[in-house]
Structure formats: C-alpha cells, structure tokens
Design a protein that fits this description.
With 368 residues, this protein is an alpha/beta fold. Helices cover 30% and strands 20% of the residues. The protein has helices at residues 29-43, 65-75, 95-100, 106-115, 132-135, 149-158, 178-185, 224-231, 272-281, 314-330, 347-357, and strands spanning 2-5, 15-20, 48-51, 56-61, 85-86, 120-125, 140-144, 162-163, 191-194, 205-208, 214-218, 234-236, 264-269, 287-291, 304-307, 335-340. The N and C termini lie far apart (46 Å).
Length: 368
Amino acid sequence: MLWHSSESGDNESMNTLWLSVDRNQRERPSGEDAIARAASILRAGGLVAFPTETVYGLGGNALEASSVARIFAAKRRPSWDPIIVHIAGASEDNQMLSALVTEIPDAARRLMAAFWPGPLTLLLPRSTAVPDAVTAGRPLVGIRMPAHRVAFELIQQAGVPIAAPSANLFSHTSPTTAEHVLHDLDGRIDAILDAGPTQHGVESTVLDPCRTPMLIYRPGAVTAEQIRAVGGEVEVQQTTVSSEAPAALPSPGVGIRHYAPRARVVLVEGLPANVAAAAVEHAGRKVGVMLPSGWPSDGLGDAELFEWGRWHVPDELAARLYAGLRDLDAQGCEVIVCPLPPPHGIGTAVRDRLQKAAWGEKDGSGRS
C-alpha cells in the first residue's frame, strides 16, 4: 500500500491511498486486506476507483446523495450526465437490485440470466431510494453486475450498491489501468484499488429494455446480435453529439464529446493507405498513429506508433484502444491518426468511442 497526494485545484486536496490486489492470487492476505479496506472506505461515504472487466470505475455509495455528489465533483462531471449503479450477488431475487428498481420487464430478466455478471447495463424504472443525481432526474436508472472478481467482491463486502462512472476526468480518455486513474484523479479521491489492466477496454453496453423495440444507447462488449438472440428486437441509437448542454441525458456516455485525449483525433476508414495519407497530411505536427499489428509503417515518416492489435481481432482493438490514446498523448502527439474498424460486433463500440473522441474536427466526425 502506497500513499499519493497532490493539489487538486478546484477540489479539496486529499491523500489518495493505493491498494493492490493480485486478481490471479486472491487467497493472498494482502489482497484480502486491500478489498476490505476499500469496502470500508465506500461504507464510510468515500470514493474508491476499482477495476471492472470494462474500464476502471470511480465508486461511491449509490444510496447516499453526498457520496454521489463527491463523484461528480471529483470527475468535474456535469449534473445532466447520469451514472451507472453496480450491484453484486445472485441475479435472481437480488436484494440490491430490488432496492433500486420498481419493475423488471421480462426481456430484462432474460438478458440478466444470459449476460449478468457481465458488461451489460440495463435502464430500469428507479425506486425512490435512488438519489436524483444518479439518474440526472430521469425515471430510469442504469444497473449492471460486473463480472470482474475483484469488483464483485468489493461490492459484496461494501454491502451497498456502488455508483461508478469511469474513473477519469469528465470527457477524457477512460482508464484501463490504475496508473491511468492516478494520472487523472490523484489527490481527488480516497483510494485506488489496483488489480491490473481491464479485459474488454470499452465501457458496458447500455440498453433500455423497457421500450419496444429495445434501444442500445451505447454499444459495448455485449453486441446487438447477442441481445437480439436473447431478448428480442433491438435497435442501436446512432452516435450523436451536440455542443449544447442538455437538460438531462437519457444514458451515460451519449451526447457530447467523450473519451477524448488532448491530441486531435483524425479518423480514416480502415485501410493502410488511408492511414499513411492522413499522417502525411499532418506531417508538420507531431503525429501519432494507432497502427494495427502487421500493417506497414512505410510512409508514416517520423510518426509515433502504437501497436494497436490485430485488425481481424476486434476484441484486441477494444482492449488496447484507451491505452493507445493515452500512450500517444503522453508522448506529446498533437494529432492521432486512427483507422475505424468495421461496424460489426465490438467493432461497433470501438467506432462509437472514436467518433465521440474525434467530435468537432472538420466535418464533425473527425475524419480527414
């Protein structure tokens, strides 16, 4: 366990406790102690960043308005952007779930049985126990049950549902390691629970199962095809962005520019020649390239390269997406060129995140 501290500017400075657990050796006493300490902080109203199978989340007691308010302050997140509540325990007759929602449609029950624990968030009618800030005052609350063993055990030990958006400053690139969290939130939160890199690398799928057809607000690792096979007809909301602050968003991760590095993100359709052309176009600036494994580096000049993963394995591209954007940012790149993967499976989620990260460039899509 290590202590870190820093001045946090507009937020009260605090010491951020670093807690480590080896998720492959959960029987180690140090791991048990780390999770127990983190759970104690959550019960006391504090904030803990913790790993899930998607990205690291910034957790606080979802039933305490003061804890939820601290999440928004630490992230500098606007009040119109709702956050997801994480639960643990048996999927059927789950006490945390029953305290949070008033109704569960049949399609939602089928999806829970198929994909919980896992990276699927369901928007369900909220109970009066849910603070308004969690849902931005809207009638549906996003609920998910994480599959990551450390996250699951942390929630169980805390004994309360945990509100947890991604553990980064608002609109910045999401964190997939504890080090990423530290970069954004050191001195702004109580603790970081480190259990290594996350698995999927993009946030959960967010689905409204109360509509007909059901609607995916944010694509993720659970795909439309998988949802359709279990729950019935479903549509995917097209990626939309706006420069105006809404009264309240219907779902986390939609609306304005999100997931963005400091560098300008330039998107091209997925061909090596298109990547090279975009790199040449911006040769007067420091360029970084998210380069799929095996793609030629000829014609990329002095560009900084991040080996992104195999193009035909979109799970690899998703898992390494945010790490690559952060890595090229850290190298001082002013422009990051990135090919868009095909819109199939988790590739749809990768495209969604990149389009939001690139919003505001040229034609509004970030494409060169």
